[in-house]
Every structure is written in C-alpha cells, then in structure tokens.
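Q: I'm writing up a methods section and want to include an example of the input and output format. Could you take the sequence below and give the corresponding predicted structure tokens, formatted cleanly so I can copy it straight into the document?
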Amino acid sequence: MTRAISPVLGSFEYPRHWAGAIFLDATLKNADLRGASLSEAIVRDADFEGANLDGADFRGAVGLTVQQVCAARWRGALLDPDVQAAAQARCGAGQSSFVGPVQR
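A: Here is the clean output for your methods example:
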C-alpha cells in the first residue's frame, strides 16, 4: 500500500523506501526518517530542520547540502563521503555517520 506524501510531514509512515523520489522544496521539519531509504532522491531545498535521520540512507541524494544535514539530527545517517566530511567539520564531530557500502 502506497500512501500519498503531502508537502508538510510530521512523520513518515510505511513504505520507508523513497529511493529516487523528488522532494524539491519540501517541508520535512521534525520528520521521523529513521531507516528511510532516500538514496538518489532529489532533496534540493528540502527543509530537514529537527528531522531524525538516524539510519536514513542519503547516499547519492541529489542536492543534499551540509546546511540541511546540520539542521537535522543526523547521527547514524548514511551519507556520501564529501557530505559527511563537511557535516563533521561544520556541525561538529560529535555526530558521526557511517560512510560506504552497507555493512552486514
């Protein structure tokens, strides 16, 4: 069952796989994105302020900026190496993310 996604989200419900989805200028404030698959999604200008990104996969996401990451709770998010390095430098190393292929 697929649910329609409104432009303003308090939390996501299943399915949690949005690989390749388009979230241009979306309001995702305080969204619960734990474990969501957003690889290769377009997230340009999306507002992630206060969103929980723990375990969310943003590898290959288009338009993801360090400002978006720092505005969220990004500990445990899967990020591209350049985004992770920039986030650690700008947001502080206190929040670390896994970078690379999924560990099993």
